[in-house]
Write a structure and sequence with these properties.
Pathway: Cofactor biosynthesis; pyridoxine 5'-phosphate biosynthesis; pyridoxine 5'-phosphate from D-erythrose 4-phosphate: step 3/5; Amino-acid biosynthesis; L-serine biosynthesis; L-serine from 3-phospho-D-glycerate: step 2/3. The chain has about 350 residues and is α/β, with parallel strands linked by helices. It is built from 9 helices and 14 strands. A hairpin with a 4-residue loop joins strand 6 (about 145) and strand 7. The longest helix has 22 residues, at about 250-275. About 45% of the residues are buried. Bound molecules: 4'-deoxy-4'-aminopyridoxal-5'-phosphate (PMP). 4'-deoxy-4'-aminopyridoxal-5'-phosphate binds near residues 9, 74, 99, 165 and 167.
């Protein structure tokens, strides 16, 4: 039976990425060696990093004056590295859920964290839009897509530079990089396997604060060493490159955004139509294109386990919702074909007929 991979991360990758990576595990770039067993400083591997950096710049239209890095430690280490490198006395954070809160926790080690707005009052089911950012904050941090709560944030208007955690929607839609001092993302959703972290940082924003930064946590060190201050995660970075090539071939972020909007619409329309289910995000413009969260309608609450079992039996993998929201979460990342979304919709309709 066909398996439809709705996991939130690590999650579905393009067939192209898996095939090319599998080939390179056996024979990388004609070296007769595995990509896992060549030096990161070999000319073949340096070419991988160079091409990946160039493709990130091309696909996201990264302006001059920004550096692209492939680091390790996940987005969680970026929660710390961002304030370490960029925060003076104060930084502003938009609190839209679990990942924003974790980012704020790390920033508090360095100074005053101003929570400009929060949607905690409604279990993060909407995006606050009206708020003021203190002019003396070093930056405003936001989470562009809330993987757990199924909401998305458009780059906020602010009078200070932006810092964004784009872990779960990077490359899913265009982004105005110039508004940002820093963008970071764990690779394991739209890019590759876990183990690599993408960082896009404005060179000019660095070196401005009066703080000793440990070597491994200093973006400038990684920039000077072109992501090779220490051994990069070679296999994940190789896989990331394959996904970037795949995305370019497909027409880039503008093309994939159209597909993502279409895919999400198919699913949200069914959730809104089907009497058994309801979206957890009432405001349509706040609904994520990557993580579609929904629950049983209150009068059908007792059917939750039955639907999960029914859908699992039909090949729907990973649709159990995060414990802080409950219900279901179908992640529809770039690599997910619309056929899989349609298969889930068919399953929901079949389940409705049974009840
Ligand atoms: N931010 C967001 C939006 C996420 O979805 C995740 C992981 N799912 C993280 C941060 C944490 O990423 P990592 O596990 O790579 O540290």
């Amino acid at each position: 039976m066909k398996k439809h991979n709705f996991y939130a991360g690590p999650s579905i990758l393009p067939e192209y990425t898996k095939e090319k990576t599998a080939e390179a595990v056996l024979n990388f770039a004609g070296t007769g060696l595995s990509v896992m067993e060549v030096s990161h400083r070999s000319k073949e591997f340096v070419a991988v990093v160079d091409e990946a950096v160039a493709l990130v710049k091309e696909l996201l239209k990264v302006p001059e004056g920004y550096s692209v890095l492939f680091l390790q430690g996940g987005a969680s280490l970026q929660f710390l590295m961002a304030p370490y490198n960029l925060m003076g006395l104060k930084a502003a954070y938009l609190n839209t859920g679990v990942w924003s809160k974790k980012a704020m926790k790390e920033a508090k080690f360095f100074g005053e964290v101003v929570e400009v707005a929060s949607s905690a009052d409604a279990n993060f089911n909407y995006i606050p839009k009206q708020f003021d950012t203190p002019a003396d904050a070093s930056y405003l941090h936001y989470t562009s897509n809330n993987t757990i709560f199924g909401t998305k944030v458009n780059a906020p208007e602010a009078n200070v530079p932006l810092v964004a955690d784009m872990s779960s929607d990077i490359f899913s839609r265009p982004v105005d990089v110039a508004k940002h001092d820093l963008i970071y993302a764990g690779a394991q959703k739209n890019l590759g396997p876990s183990g690599a972290t993408l960082v896009i940082v404005k060179d000019e924003a660095l070196g401005k604060i009066d703080r000793v930064i440990p070597t491994m946590l200093d973006y400038r060190i990684h920039i000077q060493n072109e992501s090779m201050f220490n051994t990069p995660s070679t296999l994940p970075v190789f896989a990331c490159l394959q996904t970037l090539r795949w995305l370019k071939e497909l027409g880039g972020v503008e093309a994939i955004e159209k597909i993502n909007i279409e895919k999400a619409a198919v699913l949200y329309d069914e959730i809104d139509r089907n009497k058994l289910f309801q979206s957890t995000v009432p405001n349509k413009e706040d609904r994520s294109l990557m993580n579609v969260t929904f629950v049983m309608a209150p009068e059908f609450a007792e059917l939750e386990k039955e639907f999960l079992d029914f859908a699992t039996a039909k090949g729907m993998i990973g649709i159990k919702g995060h414990r802080s929201v409950g219900g279901f979460r179908a992640s529809t990342y770039n690599a997910m074909p619309i056929e899989s979304v349609q298969a889930l919709v068919d399953t929901m309709q079949e389940f409705e007929k049974k009840h």
